[in-house]
Amino acid sequence: MRMLRFILFRLLGMVIVLLVVATVSYAIFYLLPTNPAQLSCGKPCTPENLQRAKEFMGTASPWWQQLWNFLTGIVAGRSFGSGDAAIVCSAPCFGYSFQQNASVTELILSRFPVTASIAGGAAVLWLITGVAGGVISALRRGSALDRGVMTVAIAGVSTPSYLVGLLAILLFGFTLQWLPTGGYVPLTEDPGQWFLHLILPWCTLAFISAAIYARLTRGQMIEVMGEDYIRTARAKGLREPRVVVTHGLRNALIPVVTIFGLDLGALLGGTVIAEKVFSMQGLGAMLIDAVHSLDLQLVVGFTLFAAFLIVFANFVVDLVYGFVDPRVKVGA
Fold first, then answer.
1. Cα 319 from chain centroid?
2. DSSP sequence for 239-251
3. Overall pTM > 0.85
């Protein structure tokens, strides 16, 4: 019951946050002077054509009715227009892009595999290398290995991601010709080419993020390894690997897990720079194109979808706390 109450409370919080995000996003993009119907009216845009465009898109109603239609469309779907020309947007309907003649949900799902492939592989790589580097650096504090790891970490934190990506393309793509320099091959089409085309984006994102995780893990491990229970564990005769992993690393991972969940949720919302550098048409590239073309329906739907991923990742992190650290009782 305690766990159930915790889950229900967190789900309620997620719904409230998403409602706030949806309301603010809708107000910003739909209630400002820029009129979506004006953008779709065509030329010449006579007052009659503009009114017909507003009625078809649902922007002729009061703002509160428009917001309600937008929110209910996510749960139950909605339609635009009437009669034979009506456009049906099935649930979950995050809006309809009249510029691309497709629902926002379909557009997001069509690009999501690209972004998920980049984000998932890079996250696993930076988590493993960052945590391992931080642990090794903490256990060898003050040594040449420690200084080397921290030097690389500082370089990763200080270097812009686009510069790392361009250098990787120049070295491994053009000079050594070991790896493809861009493009995306679906996993279902050719797993080998899918893997080869993602190595450079993975390593680029991992080099930057792993540096942050290495510094964070190092600081946490140094603090934890100086605690009384670590000395007690050693005094009981436990082997050093068990002391480090079970008693040290497990307690040092709490802030790492928090940041990892939020970073992964943000990445799944769109790896903008990596997709542009490596010419991959994912969610980030789609968002940039939508902003340039003032496709407001797509921008609003994408914003809410990205917010959902981040909120959901934060929810999963809260559940993982109880497994990472037994002192944290989820639902207590």
1. 19
2. -HHHIIIIIIIHH
3. no
Residue that the structure tokens 């090794």 belong to: 136
Q: State how far the Cα of 194 lies from the Cα of 213, in Å rounded to an integer.
A: 27
- If we measure between CA atoms, which residue out of 162, 241, 147 comes closest to residue 201? 162
Given a cut of 70, whether residue 236 has pLDDT beyond it is yes
DSSP state of 325: -
Distance CA 277, CA 162 (A): 7
Q: Judge whether 108 and 94 are in contact, CB under 8 Å.
A: yes
Say yes or no to pLDDT of 329 above 60: no
Q: Where in the chain is the domain with CATH 1.10.3720.10?
A: 105-324
d(CA 273, CA 228): 45
Query: How far is 332 from 321, CA to CA, in rounded Å?
Result: 12
Beta pairing class for 87-89 and 78-80: antiparallel
Q: Which CATH entry fits the domain spanning 105-324: 2.40.50.140, 3.40.190.10, 1.10.3720.10, 1.20.140.10?
A: 1.10.3720.10
Q: What is the DSSP pairing of strand 96-97 with strand 102-103?
A: antiparallel
pLDDT above 90 covers a percentage of the chain that reads 1
Beta bridge partners of 87: 80
Q: Residue 269 — pLDDT band, cuts 50, 70, 90?
A: low
Distance (Å, rounded) from C-alpha 207 to C-alpha 93?
A: 37
Distance CA(27)–CA(64), nearest Å, equals 10
DSSP strands (E only) in 101-247: 102-103
Task: Give the chain's mean pLDDT.
Answer: 81
- CA–CA gap between residue 308 and residue 116 (Å, rounded): 15
Q: What local confidence, expressed as pLDDT, does residue 220 receive?
A: 85
pLDDT at 327: 56
Per-residue pLDDT reduced to its tens digit, 297-316: 888 888 888 888 888 888 88
Q: What is the DSSP string of 126-140?
A: HHHHHHHHHHHHHHT
